[in-house]
Amino acid sequence: MAAGEHESAEVSQSTTVVVIGAGPAGLTVASLLRRCGVDCVVLERHSRAYVAQRQRAGIVESRAVRMFASWGLADLVLGGAPHDGILEFRVDGESHLVDDSDGSAGPGARLCPQQVLVHKLTAAHLADGGDLRYEVADVSLHDLTGDRPTVRFRSADGARHAITCAFVAGCDGDHGVSRSTVPEGVLTAHTLDHGIGWLTVLADAPPPAHPLLAVSSHGFAAHFPRGPHSSRYYLQCPSDDRPDAWPDTRVWEALRTRLADPALIAGPITDRETFRLRSLVHDPMQYGRLFLVGDAAHIVSPMGGKGMNLALYDADLFARAVRDHVRDQDDTGLRTYSRRCLRRVWNDQEFSHWLTRTVHDAGDDTHAGPFLRHVARARLDRLFTSPTAAQAFAELMTGLDPA
Ligand code: APR
Prior knowledge:
By secondary structure, this protein is an alpha/beta fold. Helix content is 36%, strand content 26%. It has helices spanning 24-35, 48-53, 62-70, 74-77, 114-127, 178-181, 248-258, 306-328, 332-361, 365-368, 370-385, 387-398, and strands at residues 11-14, 17-20, 40-43, 81-82, 86-91, 94-99, 110-111, 131-133, 137-142, 150-154, 160-164, 167-170, 188-203, 212-215, 221-225, 231-237, 269-283, 286-287, 290-292, 298-299. The strands form four sheets. The chain has an eight-stranded mixed sheet with strand order 6-5-14-15-16-13-17-20. 43% of the residues are buried.
């Protein structure tokens, strides 16, 4: 600050919960808290437009649809189309349709692209008078182990703010400020590098009839719907590959080969990135009055579509815990938050790991060798021929397993 320039006075206020991050986790926490009359302030470092255009996850599983319905929010926040409960495995060009709905009563999964969910949650929250601040900077967390933490930040106009609160919801993803505020040694990070690289592509190209996982000696590929005229594709690639190694012609050629669909219709590619598949769980998901929600606490491989859904599940447990604390002075939910979330997180990590290994090991021998290729093929054969195995798979895909 130049000499003589006076730093503006810090604006102070208080609320019950400060939510850091306005992605699926943060907006769901804020919407559920508002629904039960708990005041909160949401702080997001990017602009509303930036957050709204981020296209990643694409399915809200049955469990999450029913969670929103239990809060009376399903019709307000869920867009997209109902998922018909069918997943296609294409193995060496042979199609196998698998139920991924467990047939239980109640609303099923929805093919709701993440940006649609985020857009609808945002609009509903703001329409309801929610306090949602974009383009904040220099967020810092203080006194998390006391009774009244403080969150400091600069608003978009440069003013300094301090908000005291009862709880902080760290919904700021894997590279946020919340988790990095927790002192060394408090959290245990369990990590796994799958040794698998993926190219992911978003294109204005017709979605598949069903979400499609393709296994062949050419390497894994997937084709998922992301709206009536949009598709998300995944292609297994060397784990150090870069997007510029995949020009359009190479992408479409590889997809036509691996999906065994020479007539696959191409379209303008709007996003292209490569990444290494990795999984990550932080335990516990809490430090004092800071509660980690969604990607801030865990990262799961995209195979089973669990990332966003786990964030929604964490948000539900956190909002109910705060509601019980404020309304009933009952802290059971707060005390058990981490344990209950982690039980679901590990359940979904196990399923995602099983599916990731299966569809990659079953492909070519160079990936995991002939023995594991036969093991993976046997798993697929069991999934296609045993009603019990199919039922277990459907339960895990819907997220309605008894865990
Ligand atoms: N201050 C304020 N906001 C921050 C900060 C910070 N220091 N750091 C990150 N954020 C914001 C990001 O800009 C982003 O909007 O936090 C938000 C985190 O959102 P996500 O990364 O989408 O994480 P989450 O809400 O947990 O969603 C998890 O949704 O993105 C899909 O499938 C994906 O598994 C992922 C899931």
